[in-house]
Amino acid sequence: MENDNRIKGRGWILLICPWVAIAICFLFSNGVGMMIPMIRQDLGLDLKTISYLSTVTFGTQVILTIPVSIAANKVSPKYLIGFMLIGVAAGSFLHGLAWTMPVIIIARILLAIGGSGLNGPLALIKDSWVPMKKITVVNGYEQFFCNSGQVIGTLLITALVGALGGWRNMMYVLGGVASAAAIVWFASYRENTEHPVELSAEKESFLIPLKDALKEKSIWLLTLGWPGTTFVWIAFMTFWPTYATENLGLSLTQAGIVTGMSGLPF
Known about the structure:
Elements: H1 9-30, H2 32-43, H3 47-50, H4 52-72, H5 77-97, H6 101-117, H7 119-129, H8 135-154, H9 157-164, H10 167-188, H11 207-213, H12 217-247, H13 252-262
Helix pairs in contact: 1-5, 1-6, 1-7, 1-8, 1-10, 2-12, 4-6, 4-7, 5-6, 5-10, 8-13, 9-10, 12-13
């Protein structure tokens, strides 16, 4: 009976690979403001142009969240998560190689694809490999990976960039980590014979559950209130480091401390 509540080794591998990619995506999304001064200095871009990094990063995530969630019920997680891991790796390498703003935007879109949709198909992996009594522990580990990406992207990114010899080298290293996760994922993926992943065979329109949700008053309150909070948070995360270094005389490391603390309530 005790063995029924244990997570198999293969299950842990299939959880950790997406978690690694999630941490990388959180690093890039939460650390976008910290990277703007570095990229501006390297490529000689003005603040308005470089701010499109934030628009692309968060905009792509918003646009793709629902479609990817729908796809998670139709496409095997082996291929959906595998595609996203490859996207994170390709986006990281391309970001490091980028010589113009359009190339960086393409890289950011690839990274946002991974960051926007991994949680959907990952839920199927947890349902298949994680016993119900262990699900809260696993969710805690997953939250740790997410928060670690945020911490590195704000509080520790200057130390990481310094240790690796520049922001481009950091991209290459993270691309290598994501590539390794993708290889391990495809090499390790097997269905759990005791509890295989169940994909939806229904052809019901995704608008039907959406219509039911919109009948709830609490959903409307969240719909009206949360975007405003998110807008303020994104604006702060994007522009505070530049404002702090150029107008307040803070170092980028000091600006990162304040930026990292702003994410604690989230």
